[in-house]
Amino acid sequence: MKKFFLHLTIILSLFTISAKAQNRIVVSDLKCEMLTNPEGIDVLQPRLSWKIKAEVNDVKQTAYQIIASTSLEKLNAGNGDLWNSGKVESDASVNVIYNGKKLKDRQDIFWKVTVFTNKGEIQSKENAHFSIGILTYADWKSTRWIGYEKASLGDSISQYSRLSARYLRKEINLKKKVKNAKVFIMGMGLYELYINGNKIGDQVLAPVPTDYTKNIKYNVFDVTSQLQEGKNMLGTILGNGRFFTMRQDYKPYKIKTFGYPKMALQLFVEYTDGSKDVIRTDDTWKVTTDGPILSNNEYDGEEYDARKEMKGWNTVNFDDKKWLSAEYVQEPGGFYEGQMSANMKIKREVKPISIKQTPKGTYILDMGQNMVGWLQLKVKGNKGEKITMKFAESLQADGSLYIANLRDAKTTDIYTLKGEGEEVWEPRFIFHGFRFVEISGFTTKPTLENFVGKVVYDDIQTTGTFDSSNPIMNQIFKNAWWGISGNYKGMPIDCPQRNERQPWLGDRTTGAYGESFLFDNQTLYAKWLDDIKNSQTIDGGIPDVAPAFWRYYGDNVTWPGTYITVADMLYQQFGDAKVVEKQYPNMKKWMDYMEENYLVDDIMTKDKYGDWCVPPESLELIRSKDPSRLTDGELISSAFYYQLLNIMKKFAVIANSQNDIKHYDELASRIKKAFNTKYLNKEKNSYANNTVTANLLPLTFGMVPDGLQTKIFENLAHEVEVTKNGHVSTGVIGTQFLMRTLTNFGRGDLAFKLASNKTYPSWGYMVENGATTIWELWNGNTADPAMNSQNHVMLLGDLLIWYYENMAGIKSNPETPGFKQIIMKPDFNAGLTYVNASYESVYGTIKSDWKKDKKGLVWNISIPANSSAKVYLPANDVSAVSINKQRLDKTSYTYSTEKNQVVVTLSSGNYAINVK
User: Fold this and answer.
1) E strand or H helix at 764
2) pTM attached to this predicted model
3) Rounded distance between C-alpha atoms, residue 423 and residue 430, angstroms
4) Contact 230, 173 (CB under 8 A)
5) Cis peptide before 207, with omega less than 30 degrees from 0?
6) Which H/E stretch holds residue 663?
7) Taking the C-alpha atoms of 761, 767, 771 and 774 in order, what is their torsion angle to the nearest 10 degrees?
8) If exposure means fewest CB atoms within 10 Å of the residue's CB, which of 15, 132, 197, 544 is most exposed?
9) Tell me: the pLDDT tens digits for 117-137?
10) C-alpha triplet 587, 590, 591: angle, nearest 5°
């Protein structure tokens, strides 16, 4: 029997088993997508997952056996004192629920798995680990929140808020040798933790933001190796983040504030003799606001005075006599939760491409890419000299910064030199969205070597690649990557540069689906669904922004409906049924709320934004003034609500709430009837005023009466192809379904024209006009650039989904969510001559690399182990098809023919397909 090695991680994490052909076995070095060996989870029945990676074809799991132990020694001895599942006959390798003994607060769990396949037994060589967090509020009762609840000299509690960072320290004495130590920290709004002078962890801007009155996230670190017998020093720096908000005493009816930065910490120590100790935050900690971080404000930047650095402040024996005793402060109010999504991290570096002096003596630095993060500075100079760096996305005609679109965000970092040789500095508690930086204060001419751009977003893996025969489409894909990554900030935000940066729901209704092909965003969006749930009002309302840092409770369908569509994405793309079960009661509550309050004569009457950002008829207009371009808001809300009812029917089955299905069915039927009565014009084969969106939504959602679908679509296609000359005419709502619907109705060529256009309005127009991300407006360079964020993702619509599902042919079969079976059905005739794409699914890497010419089609595909694919080949006759240099026959493969296609079902492995 063959033996395989297994690399493991935990809960929503994905692992790799590597099985080389000819019995040669190695452990793969694939990175894990989700939480790897996490500390402090707050789930008592976590879901375990693993991957099988094999260079032999047709690998299927037939059974598994999981062992979980309280210690590594017991695990290695095969003693599953927490859980021994026994041999379970199952092909499940994703989201396998822990079903052992009840887990306890702060417990360590070690586990491994043996996988049985049709090719032999695969036994794990490496072991996985996770620990449980603090599960109850009461377990924090002896730990007090501490801080400094006052403004200091130089601070400003105003619209343009300034607040210096809080530095806290505590010297402790550990009288014995440490066996194990873990620290639990809640640092609001942002923190950095130090032990004996060393920063703990490589995260930045931690923890992830929440509505702090509803829930607080704590982080956990194993700090055993950082502690020593004897004296040790615990130190923290507290930044402001979303807690001490960017605008104080300004529009209190809109902007939520939470107070001054504060923290709660518990350090649990176990000594080698078995005894234990706990160190907690209390009023014996010392605090000062008189450190070098004079101000840190996400909108306005960070100011740092290196002359005020306190050398050794976070090490033992530092003189802190001038520091104050920390104050006991009011807790934030939210429930304490283990953070189950990734913190942010510096993910890559960008080197600038040019630096030019301006007539006024400043310098303009060009990073070559609209990026999100900050700038690291290297400088030599005299004590007290100041380097000022102002950030912007673009330049004016005279070469100076264009800052009007930043509104009142100052986006400026200031560094004051201490005058001690080369000084290297970067901010801690802010981020900027920028390509260009105006730099002043250098006494000598700066060079490119003085600066490095640090790209910051959530520590999640890039899971998708895409390359094609069309350069414009390739550049749009790159621009999308930069835009999406830059707007992942512990939650999905709309933009990273101006005085907004809010988690608008409507930007991600379908966008999250497309993003999931590029990034492993499962835990990010699962966390965001909790944010939405926590923002729900008692009567059921959901805001347009969640967490509700801005109080936008206006009620409509298309923005709050994101709550449901994102859950559907997590189920479809990751096979995550648990998230649906968890959120279903609150989703139903909102659906009922909208029905009870706004459904009149079976028409959903509440709409707020319409088809937001429809391309205007003129390059100079921000919003269209032509009523023929605008879609009836009640048509949009009624169609969208109808679609949500259909998703809720599926969710009701998952959540074991089948009794709701009858209501959803009956209500959907009534809405469909009323919708067609009010909006369908059978004589003109169109809906309402015949906008593309007005016809597109009922077509996509299945609301068009039988026999009329083709006529409605032909009318829609005529509008796109002839009336709009092959250009986008839909706004945020319509564009979410445009590309896939055109392709599904046989006009992939028209979708390709939209994707590859270079003229207004199109994604390619942005590229042709210098965009390196995605704009907020289709004509953002001409309409009033002051209203245009140059890094938004909402206009992507379903473009990325179309790239993968319709061009590359990488789609999860809805009947087997999470890519258990893959639908591989590219539109080979849309207009591309080759596509090379990959996607790291929960089962492993899926590859689709096809090229066609006059001789035929060459298609190389990879299907991960323990999954399969339904592959559609453009052939009238099976004799034209060969796989791995062998002609297709039923002795080797299962296939069928339909509509000039040969449909082959393939198990896992690598296949070279030729179609003459």
Assistant:
1) helix 763-768
2) 0.96
3) 20
4) yes
5) yes
6) helix 659-679
7) 60
8) 197
9) 999 888 877 789 999 999 999
10) 85
Rounded Cα distance between 458 and 595, Å, is: 37
Distance between alpha carbon 505 and the CA centroid of its chain, in Å?
A: 13
The closest alpha carbon to 90, from 62, 115, 52, belongs to 62
Vertex 74 angle, CA 68 and 78, to 5°: 70
Q: DSSP readout, 635-650?
A: HHHHHHHHHHHHHHHH
Stretch 772-782: mean pLDDT: 96
Answer yes or no: is pLDDT of 6 > 60.
Answer: no
What distances in angstroms separate CA 320 from CA 317, 519, 580, one per listed residue? 9, 45, 52
Residue 131 to residue 869: CA distance in whole angstroms: 36
- Say if CB 449 and CB 199 are below 8 A apart: no
DSSP code string of 813-872: -TTSTTTTEEEE---TTSS-SEEEEEEE-SSSEEEEEEEEETTEEEEEEEEEEEEEEEEE
Q: Angle 250-794-617 (CA atoms, 0-180°, nearest 5)?
A: 100
Q: Helices in 451-561 by DSSP H: which ranges?
A: 471-486, 511-518, 522-535
Beta-carbon contacts of residue 784 (< 8 Å; ≥ 6 apart):
622
Q: Please give the structure tokens belonging to residue 466.
A: 């895409």
CA 39, 42, 45: angle at the middle one, nearest 5?
105
ω into 547 cis (within 30 of 0): yes
At 30 the pLDDT is 21
Cβ-based neighbour number of residue 814 at 10 Å: 12
Residue 474 neighbours by CB distance under 10 Å = 14
The phi-psi region of residue 259 (left if phi > 0; otherwise alpha if psi is between -120 and 50; otherwise beta) is: left
The Cα–Cα gap between 411 and 496 comes to: 11
Element (H, E) at 96: strand 96-97
Distance in angstroms (rounded) separating the CA atoms of residues 226 and 206: 20
Name residue 856's beta-bridge partners: 853
Residue with tokens 């182990």: 865
Percent of the chain beyond pLDDT 90? 91
pLDDT at 9 over 50: no
Can you spell out the DSSP letters for 155-198? -B-SSS-B-PPEEEEEEEEE-S-EEEEEEEEEEESEEEEEETTE
Question: Would you call 301 helix, strand, or coil by DSSP?
Answer: strand
95 has a pLDDT exceeding 50: yes
Q: Which of 75, 53, 55 is nearest to 65 (CA)?
A: 75
For residue 722, the 8-state DSSP code is: I
Separation of alpha carbons 330 and 336, rounded Å: 14
Mean pLDDT, rounded, for 689-702: 98
